[in-house]
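Lab notebook, bench 4. We co-purified these components, and the gel suggests they stay together. Before we commit to crystallization screens, I want a quick structural picture of the whole thing.
Request: model the full complex, all chains together.
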Amino acid sequence: MTDSQKFDLIVVGGGPGGYVGAIRASQLGQKVAVVEKENLGGICLNWGCIPTKALLRAAELKHNVSNLSEFGIEIEGSININLKNVVARSRKVAERLSIGVSHLMKKNKVTVIDGVAKIQNKIADGWQIAVEGKTNYLLESPNILLATGARPREISGMEADGDKIVTYRDAMIPKKIPKSLLVVGSGAIGIEFASFYNDMGVDVTVVEAMDRILNVEDREISDIAHKSFEKRGIKIYTSATLESISKSKNGVTSTIIIGGKKQKISTEKIIMAIGIIGNTENLGLEAIGVKIEKGHIVTDGFGATNIKGVYAIGDVTGPPWLAHKASHEAIICVEAINKKTLIHQLSEDAIPGCTYCRPQIASVGYTEEKAKAEGYDIKVGRFPLLANGKAIAMGEDEGLIKTIFCSKTGALLGAHLIGAEVTEMIQGYAIARTLETTEAELMHTVFPHPTISEAMHESVLDAFDRAIHF
Amino acid sequence: MAIDILMPALSPTMTEGILSKWLVKQGDKVRSGDVIAEIETDKATMEVEAIEDGIVAKIVVSEGTEGVEVNSVIAILSEDEESIDKISENTNNVSHSMSSDVNALKDDAKKDFKKTDKLSQNKPSIAKTEDGSATNKSSDGDSQNIKILGKRVFVTPLARRIAKQHDIDLAIIKGTGPYGRIIKRDILAFSKSETKATSVFNEGQITSAKGVIIPHSAMRRTIASRLQLSKQMAPHFYLTIECNIDRLLDNRAQLNKMVPEGIKISVNDMIIMASAMALKKLPEVNGWFEEDGCRYFDTADICMAVAIKGGLITPVIRSVEKMGLSDLSVTTKDLAARAREGKLKPEEYTGGSFTISNLGMFGIKEFAAVINPPQSAILAVGAGEKRAVVKDGELAVATIMNVTLSADHRIVDGALGAEWLQLFKGFIENPVTMLI
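Here is the predicted assembly.
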């Protein structure tokens, strides 16, 4: 059965890019449909950001409970992990939020269509889209917004098997805790799993091809994280390439090359986290000539592709692969389609990034290296959490707040945070950047005492040799 | 005890002004009535007097600051020396739209009045070092001369600082941030499009791609906004009539023989008088159009347009209908002279009910003027010249003056305007009838 329906905008993909774009379009008075092949909320909500935060919260509690004696609290008996319940809670959290998104769709009068979408035909006033699902549909719309996301990149010959070699999805629903684990790739995803499994008592090894872990972060932050993880017992190999994997009955043996030398690492499991590629296939894009480069759809900064009426946002258009980037791009794109005036394209430096390992990492803007490479004369401020009263009181005095300013204009070029709660604090610097404050406004801002955020203030002061408490 | 000195409202319509000069400095003793500062509004320069005796504890708004809001604190008087320190400390929360160097001042006020004085003059060379090098410029940079009056400029701190560093006038930048706020990229975009020839021009003149931009004076902005408002809001219509002024010229010659020494009644004086008489006879023209109704006046308060350096101003002669011609003549001369010197008091150029603009001396035959809002009409007076006229079926020579009434149709209808012009013409052509 085929149902034909007309819309002002059809969004393909109901993730944090797609559903947010759909809501915005509806707010602007458009008749909108979202086509989703699996669950509303996309990877982020169902298989990414949210369920992993639930797992990492369990890991954090486990860590805290294990250290209660430091705070003078004694508990008797052993601390046991019921993995089944840890995972079940994570799934419940994801499910609850996905239901929340379907309520949002209803509230905003967005039509949700289950199935897989494909651009079928160019018609006089737009596009015809075929949806294959339990019910088949033929939809028509002048504009299509592709928000199909991305999937893990795989190395040929080392593809995930869902058992010994897994990617993020299986990694977040383990049936049993492995004894040992090799994490290939030290981006946010790899490092979060390394942190989680380490807290779960697993012997974790991380292999990274670049010369440092978390290479999108500032080098200084990477170094602090590296030392902190090693202190926790995580083994890290940088400038190391994975050459081959051989599976055995009890696990996998990986051959890695470090500085020209081969080394074998045997683990029970491997998590592959070496980046992602856009879901550009089977959408009918090739037939209509949408430009795709390196697995990502090419857009103009306002979501427009080279084909009129076809737009794309989020992971499918390239890095940084972040949910909040997708959401923001979707809003910009939908407003541009609706000819809202004064829209600026999203600046990559304005997108904060967070990694929820222990200690947490958060950043926005240029790293020190990047700022120098861009030709800025810079001033760098640093404030260690070991000089912050609240951090010490919490027993979380490991960390650093680093700020980078343009010497000439006082612009906050970048901020790099590692330590407790920093993922909740980075927005302060993000707001400062959006409002284009200079060091003067930040210095004149009163930060409440006692908070870890005071370290944000001190870091700014330090950049201008005015730090009070260090 | 601290006494706040507030930015005075020099006229009912004044919302902000320029603090052009301080005549006292911190630490000076002042007595009630002493002139302590000069304030410049869009129309005139005025003196500010101390209202109490005391010591100037703190100058909050520095000399040369533009856009100072009425009723904002511009300085603080202390009753005695002891409390000066306290005042310096407690003025942290003094609110003022452009006083971002308050904090800088606060730091120094206690220690060093001299230094503060320098700072308050806004000289970039006295940048403070305590903030480190990037802030060197910030104490002046953040309070930089925003060359715009009557309108607040919304600009991010970073954009403001970069504009300052590139010597770009924010008033000529179009903001593309939220609610039109000027953001960094607007400044950078402008800076790119700007030609490199800035140094060729004098300070205060900023080059753009074409020509030279001279930042608006307060008066230019006022003229622009008021007259634009007038043309946009008031549906103008124009009525022109010819007046034979031969008799008026005769009468004027006779009168001038009789008036006291030093007084010389002008044709313009007689035009003002004739207008006043016509307004008295036809008060329906003597009013303002307002939102909720038309306001009518029982006195003919007539404004005369006076060209002055950089613009024009319209001093008002009140109750002209009660004046004698010689009084009127003295008053108009005095007002015109003081208008040219920029020394009119606010009440001398606000609140008229009708305006006369005379370009006759430039040989203009006739023209149509823009109504001075919220007034109902303006009379544009052309040159009196000898013309051939038909009199009693014969060609004759007469001195003819064309006048054009621009009227706001919301309050004055065509027939009413015409009737008023007929009355005016009657008075002009037969001045003695003004005595009735």
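The domain at 157-216 of chain B is CATH 4.10.320.10 (Dihydrolipoamide Transferase). Worth comparing against the SEC data before the next meeting. Chain B has a mean pLDDT of 79.
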